[in-house]
User: Fold these one by one.
Assistant:
Number 1:
Amino acid sequence: MPELPEVETIRREIAPFVKGKIISGLEIKDPRNIKGISPALLEKKLAGKKILGVDRRAKYLVFPLSPAGFLVVHLGMTGRLLFAPDPYLKVTFVFKGGEKLYFSDARLFGKIRYFDADPPLDLGPEPFSKEFTAQKFGEMLAKKKTSIKLVLLDQKILSGVGNIYANEALFRAGILPKRRADDLSETEVKKLHKAILDVLEEAIEKRGTSDSWYVDASGKKGSFQERLQVYGRKGEPCFKCKTPIERISLGQRGTYFCPKCQK
């Protein structure tokens, strides 16, 4: 599933293209990704409205509209926003003048929604926000008795981090994924806080991780998969100590770690 770096990469790519454009209509090939509103009403709500920009909230893309309204897109597992159609095309956004933006989704987990007012997205702080300090992060973890890996995946606690980057951040911080969140020392919290920010910044710089379906709006793959230390590397030697990487399941998610480097 696209996480913060992948969604941010797409946001940066499509924002200059869509900003200021007026939506003239929709071409709906398959309506199943449209949620909470009928396809006909969605088109009516969007027609004639100007896109003011593109925001990212965790893994959501939010398009504020003028004179009112918000278009919200969640890519799910295999969703894509593209400048050219692919074989899994579902919805085409048509702009005045004839330009188009394409939404495709092979497995139909993505969502297209519309809100008249600011979207009520129940999310925790953004990793790059002023609210996400090491101190506040530690205070939050001290209240959680579940595994640190599952805490990092909870979007109500920290928004945007998913399975790939939780694995990678925990490895960089030297923390076992199954450790209880409230068991982490102050030093470990600081290391993990820094590791989260570092891995997300590097992944954005490399335009995301293309380990399965993800491509950017131009159809190009990211390259952060070339820097993965543990994710998807079960049985392969740790880059630091040569111990084989192990895999367990936490919260039904594949969890990768080095049993020697992580404590």
Number 2:
Amino acid sequence: MMYSFVLSGDNLVVMVNNHPYTVNNNHPNYHAIMNGIKDNIGVDDMMSLINESVLVPERKFSDEFDNVTFDGDNVYVDGQVLYHSIVDRIRQFHKENLPYKNLLKFINNLHSNPSFNSREQAYNFLEHSMMPITEDGCFLAYKSVDSNYMDHHTHKVCNKPGNTIEMDRSKVDDNPNNHCSSGFHVATLRYASGFGGSRSKLVIVKINPKDIVCVLIMRNL
């Protein structure tokens, strides 16, 4: 059994037996893992470095939603420590006695998403865009529609408040470079407000993160 890796920014993804393990520079063994890749260490040694901090002592308490657990310090998904900015937010809310269980539900929903790229990009998108996360772990975004609540491109999809719209995932373009391609699109308030012209309406859309197919982050929005 061998492993491969991909480095994207501060995130290192190590693939072992077709299973991805995400490690960022907050991981206690980040530098040891990087050196291990350079030294071509074995799979067992690599997994020991990745999983060292996953061994959890007796917990004072535990919040758990399906495959997601928070012990007051770390968030675990299927027993693996999660390293993302959302975890820092959960720790902060827990420390300040603010509600955070919706964030755990969001993580649980997101990790039902079959797309690795969508799962990785969603955290950064919501953090950058200041998207609200609902009590049931979904999130709210914005969409510009025409005066009759129909979509701007085909004028066939009704986005009237209260409607639930669906589309076969296999028909959605998952390439973030193909703007305005096949699929349902949502955006930040700033972007959506300036799209479609003066006769457009703006609607708030509730989305389950498991249904995210593609994320485009535009830093000036």
Number 3:
Amino acid sequence: MPAVTAPILTTEPAAIIAGDTLAWTKSVADYSAADGWALSYVLLSSGKTPITISTTADGADHAVSVAATITAAYAPATYRWTSFVTKAGERKTIESGTVAILPNPATQTNAYDPRTHAEKCLVAIEAVLEGRMADPIVEYQIGNRMAKKIPHGELMKLRAVYKAEVRRERGAPMMTTIPVRFGRV
């Protein structure tokens, strides 16, 4: 059976798994590697060590190659990346975006919870609504108003918000509720 080789990406990945090898090739119009332009990336996330990624020339394109041993040290989080080119003291920002660095599944412990924030909140809200969680919110304060518990109606609104967020994260189509009233005409 022949070996299967993954194709090289031609754009920045939306997600990186810590411990995986990174590889992509980027073509940047007007800033060819063959003309001496060097493309670099900086990834920033609050409280995390910045990550710098350099490229090498691949003809006119810029090739990214980061070893698995390097990405293994990447801290899981959502990062904002910015790419820029440099040449002879000149620097030009090219574009920016976000990338999720995911934990290395081979090094995770049983304590790892892969659920997103929205999934965790939805489970907690549903537990309160079903009476499975006793007094989950002792008190909270918004401005000069203080409450001991979130009212049922507010929990229902929060549930709808987080349910929609979970659907969005999973790529499920959004459902629209159309109110219907039965009665005399």
Number 4:
Amino acid sequence: MKKILLRISIGFLALLILAVLAIGLFLDGAVKRGVETFGPELTKVDVKLDRVSLSLFSGAGQIKGLVVGNPEGFKTPHAISVGSASVALKPASLFSDKIVIKSIRVEAPDITFEGGFGGNNLGKILANVQSAPGGGGGKTNAAAKTEESKPGRKLEVDEFIITGASVNLSLNGIGSQSVTVPLPDIHLSNLGTNPDGITAAELTRQVLAAIEHSAAQAAAVSLGDLSKSANGITRNLGKSVDGSVTNLTKGLGDLFKKK
């Protein structure tokens, strides 16, 4: 009898382990499929994710190879590329209506700010997200209201950190200038801590808004330096700069408009 009970216990334990592994594999695959399906619908650009790993026991996870493409009309290969990001969540919340994520930490993402006198790529993606249901853009049409009223999994993100980022500034229309500069760390906190939580679309909007704002500031500094250089060069040449520099300065603000 003892041997039978022992065998049953071992068999049950083995089945339990296999079940947990199966759920883990299914969850990883589901996250990847969700990102690659929901991401393009939200941003209107290609979104690819190489790999996801998430532990149901510890709640720790890793995201590898996330690439967000560029809107139509922009020439650079992508808008954002993330080699690695770490996630820490409360495992029990996976089975509730609101998933509680304790932290998301994005390490050294490669960001491209492609700007011209018609707008910039990050601003265009942000506008796409804002216009999507639940994206915080204030859509009032009936279809959007219907979709927003559907029940869905909400999120709470206690801490979202982007660190070690660099931005490639591709400034069209003024000699196709291209330069890479570091970005200060971005730290968002207490997102969706209210009982209703936050939608994935709204989380995406807030993160993209922070990235675009930081990249635009870096572009403004770079353009300011370029304008100063133009002034200095033309002064040294002893030529009038009223026309060229004024026209350049007048057009700088257009770089930060959404296309």
